[in-house]
Amino acid sequence: METDQLIRTLAADNGQRSLPVGIMLALALLAATPLSTAMLLLGLGIRPDIMVAMRNPFFDLKFVVTLALAIPATVISLHLSRPEASLHGWVWLLLAPVLVLAGAIMSEMMLPQRLPMLARLVGHNSMLCMSAIPILSLPLLAAAMLGLRHGAPSRPALAGAIAGLLSAGFAATLYAAHCTDDSPLFVATWYTIAAAGVAGLGALIGARVLRY
After folding, report:
1. 3-state DSSP call for residue 154?
2. End-to-end CA gap in the chain
């Protein structure tokens, strides 16, 4: 009789167990992505010359850079959702967008330029870039926090900062479809500043909501 009761208790506990943090994070991000996309389309729209821009490899490269940030940051976020996890042995993944940008900047430098370096760095929409990416990140950041709450990060501020990077990476991927500044110098400067701001916000939020 006691054995039967134990089996029923274990079965009940198993039925109440939540989904793994990876699934919860994926579902939350999938739910938030249409909202961020709608914000882009309604607030900014897609650049009107996108079909022509797609022939420019530096336009395509923006998506490579942003996803090279978002995907590794997602992997690291899942790692940090486990107790006692640290960045040791994982931080090198965040070098992916840096290496891509470094190669792109060197490639651009070897091409004949119509605009001076400073003009390419400043671009036309630097202020918009630094505000749009964080705003588009907000639904994704909220979703990331919701998903990661199903884990047990021992360093909640750090986990929140990486969640901010993954949110900024995906938001920047959306924003890149609107952005008319394609120079790797522009991306390396303003996209980075915007992503750092979202990471800081993620650290502040994560320190509170990811604590267990």
Report:
1. coil
2. 36
Is the pLDDT assigned to residue 12 strictly greater than 70?
no
The percentage of residues in the chain with a pLDDT greater than 70, rounded to a whole number, is: 92
Residue 84's region, left for phi above 0, alpha for psi from -120 to 50, else beta, is: left
Enter the tokens of residue 164: 């901010």
Note the pTM of the prediction, 2 decimals: 0.86
Q: Can you point out the beta strands (E) in 109-150? A: none
Cα dist. 128→50, 136, 174 in Å? 18, 12, 14
DSSP string, 25-71: HHHHHHHHHHHHHHHHHHHT---TTHHHHTTSHHHHHHHHHHHHHHH
**Tokens (6 digits) for 127:** 């202020």
Digit-coded pLDDT (tens) for 76-92: 999 998 888 778 888 89
Whose tokens are 């939350």? That residue is 28
Which residue's entry shows tokens 């990331």?
144
